[in-house]
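We close this part of the discussion by returning to an individual protein. Part of our work consisted of pairing the sequence of a single chain with a tokenised description of its backbone. What the numbers capture is local backbone geometry rather than side-chain detail. The amino acid sequence and the backbone structure tokens for this protein are reproduced below.
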Amino acid sequence: MKINYNYRSNFLPIINLLGLCISFGIIGIISSIYDFLDDDSMFSIIIILSPVWFGIIWLSCYFLFSYLPLEMVAEENTLTVKVLFRKTVIRYPDIESISIDHEFKMAELRGEHGRYYEILKITDINKKEYVYSRKLDLENNEIATNPEYMKEQFEKSEFSQLKTYIEERIPIMQAKSGYREENGIKENYAYFYNNNKRIIIFLGCTFSMIIIPCLIAAAINNLDGVLLAFIIFNLILIGMIILANPPSSFDADDKQVKFSCLGKKTTIRYADIEELKLEHSYYDRIIKSGEKRYVETLTISTKDINYVFSAKMYIDYDRSAQNPALLTKQFEDSKFSQLKRYIEEQMK
């Protein structure tokens, strides 16, 4: 079963605000250095035309985030959701609950009409929520003459069909004890740095962001040097953001497990494993944000080397406070816990 639709991102107001602020900033910079620009130099032409280039980029981002393409593919074992370059895979045995709500939203832009929306909410066994909202195309005239029409359309909507499709397969998949053995485990996880590594990365990137652009600007003592320093500064900033939350994943089959982080892949064969150890710990954030941080660390020992992988855990603290047993269950059902059990089963 496949569903394709477009939706408006919640980040659209932020994009508009940033676009306005950056536009005023560019205009202010150009006005302050206009007298120093040489009309015949390529750099001057680039600077003068920068509002045009930025305007094109801004409008492109606006239309992209106004009509983000989303694709849902429901297969026998998993639901895959794709938004641009991001892919989310939800396994049916990991689903704890699935529900659909409906709401009416007033038009946000002139020329639009109020619409009914259906909201699909999926909660997994780790208490992580996946929420998707889709606009419904209903005939208002038909609703006025036949109120039952709206109820019928709600029941026949694509999200309702998807919910039914998944619910029919959840008991089947949970009953198949060989599901994981046959299909393996493939997951993305939130890579965790301990505080020492995080400090080193932060200080290293900050030092590079300040020193390298300044050295370049001083070595090339003109506007070209300033432009190059600005580009280097932004490249280092982007690298710092990626390093803060590096994309990480693991893929385990019946013979080996592959870990991937920032393009670096580590393959470990089960035949080489001597010991598996999983530990849970709590880390205080150095930069306080009010967020608690539980971490799970999987240590895989082979004859030659010990491999250590750490991941952030997403815990439902409110429910755990009401029922402490839920915290234990979330630890037992974590991604690394499932991976450890799977590897141990394959090693038997």
Q: What stands out?
A: The chain has a mean pLDDT of 78. The longest strand covers residues 95-105.
